[in-house]
Amino acid sequence: MVVGKIVNTTHVSDAHLSLTDSKSFELLEFLNNIADEQSLELRDITTLVKHTLPLYPSIPVGFREKLKRLVSKSLPLLNHIIGFVASLKGSPETEIYKTFLIDVASEEINCLFNYLGAVRNAVELRLVQSVFMGSKLYNCLATSLSVTDYMAILKNQVQFALLRGCSQKLKSLGELLSAFLSFHPAYACDVLFGEIVLQSSLSLECFTQTLKATSRLAQSRLYRGLTRFLSKVSNESNSTSIYNVLEKTGFAGSNYRELIELKAPILRRVIITLECHGTRIACYEGLIDAFGKHEPAHDADVCQLLVMILQSFSQETKELLSHQERFLNAVTARLSSQDTLIRERTMFIGKLLTNGKLSFDSPFQIHTPSFNKPESEAINLESLKPSGELSSNKKDHQLERKINSLKLSEGTASNHSIFFLKDLLNEFNKTSKSRYGLTELLEITVSLVRQKKDFKTEVDFYADSLISTLSTLSNSFEEQNFEEWKTNAIVSILVTAPHKVFTLIKVLFEADLSLQQRMSILSSLALAARELRGLNDQMIVKLEDCSWKPPKNGSTAQLSNKTQKLVKDTVLQEGTVTWKSRKLSKDLEKRTNENRFQAVAAKFFFPLAHGWLNGIDLGPYDKMFKQHYLTTLRLILSAADPHSELNQMCEMMLLVMKSAEEQDIIIQT
């Protein structure tokens, strides 16, 4: 071993030594010796990282390959390199290390497989997960690699590990696949199931074996990811293949909440057909409780699922269930509703459960797709490949494209070629590589999300990723109107998918944000609450405003007069952030006939109120932030009226106000 010599003789400045130099010979001798060793000592790792890798661009190709193979077999070495890059803090040398890491991850596709094979306990498995799936490696490469590029690298690593996985490591592999889904909620699901598992019979078989061997928690996450993917590609023509895939993988069914989340009716029918009687009964019990609450946001889904489950029961089972107190109480509660549709659904389900004994003449029906357990076990994997972006069937996809093209071509905002939210996310993730500026992307977000308000499957699927991306954006290049368009973009997502407010609140409390980013989130929550309530704030761009042409080359935006108020009320230029509390005048408020905030008011208010009561401390900006926080809570509370939990909200608001008074927070009126 010649470690000592290398430590003393090699340095970044020696990168271009000729191979006739003795130091270069010593370097090559060191590499030649160490590359064939099974394990590395700490001093060897230190030598490689500090003194050898800076020479990576200038050493012969054969030795570069040896270096990459060496790292592909040693997780401690890879981990040490990542840590060393972080310690360099932007030094020019970091680009050499990043290039090397990208080469290793993309060319040595057996890295993950090798590291997994060396795992001896849960601690080592968590280390592998944190490096690949926990974004440790990605954070190191983020300035050189987009998230989509990194996902492509992960795909090859995961695919190799899945196809080559040994029986002794299947449990650990299942944990890794589960962690893979968490890395990027939108893309990872498409990649794992659309580009790996369902690409071939062999991949599906390997995935099935892995599923059966892994932990219950990992199984649950993987099954949930699989059904989410299948919900995007399901239609009546491939329902047999979907059934056989789920049956082959050992899928036992979903709980009622998961069934509600799956928006494809044919997939719901397939899953219910696949479930055993006990699982159906458990789903029924959850659904009948939700049926009694008749929440507007989910009532149509709950009723459709109840019909599907009841159609699968025998007459004896339905007779027994029809006399249960929970069913009778649910029917009584719903029949007292003033909503005709609620009463119609109630009577239809009541007639079905009582086998027609309930007398009620009405043409109203709840339609459900038909499906019978297939006799064949054949699986047509080609039929499970998405025919378009997030379309559950070809007809819907064509309709979506037609609507989008009409809206975009009729207006003047069609100077971009983004028609799907996945493409939009991709542009945000490209950062400096995108052909759009950040402000322009935010404008496109407002237009695109609001145009897709009726395509819930797509918006719901990408909402989490969009919210996380938008809320953590910062105006690094001081683009004009950035903050108001950012707020508009977040509001557009919240009013289209209000139940995703939990994601935004989670970012507020858990992410490492600047004061400006936190203030922007609070502004978005308040304005979204008001719009959902039916109030019209002029600073929020609605669908009818989306025909505006984005400014280019410094041109002035035609919407600046509409968004200027938002700048004045939520942010001051030059980075100073304030919130001006004011009584909104009547001409800024136009009530609509629909109040969509009632169904989600509690989800907006209570987490924020609890967050205050649990304690907030932003140091020198604490009072400024808390004043803005109080104003947000008050706006949300005012929008919540009327609400069944309004008294509880008011009581909690009093506690918040009392706490603010004790902290000398000025309560503006």
Q: Can you describe what's shown?
A:
- The chain is mainly alpha-helical and 669 residues long.
- Among the domains are: 234-386, no CATH class; 394-662, Serine Threonine Protein Phosphatase 5, Tetratricopeptide repeat (Alpha Horseshoe), CATH 1.25.40.720.
- The chain is 62% helix and 0% strand.
- The chain contains 33 helices and no strands.
- It has helices spanning 3-9, 22-34, 42-52, 61-72, 75-88, 94-107, 111-117, 122-132, 136-141, 147-164, 170-183, 187-194, 201-213, 216-233, 239-248, 256-261, 265-274, 277-293, 299-312, 315-322, 325-335, 340-353, 394-410, 421-430, 438-451, 456-471, 482-496, 501-510, 515-533, 560-570, 601-614, 622-640, 646-662.
- It is globular, with a radius of gyration of 29 Å.
- Residues 1-22, 388-415 and 547-593 have low confidence and may be disordered.
Give the helix/strand class.
Answer: mainly alpha
Q: Separation of termini?
A: 76 Å
Overall, the morphology is globular
Put simply, the count of helices is 33
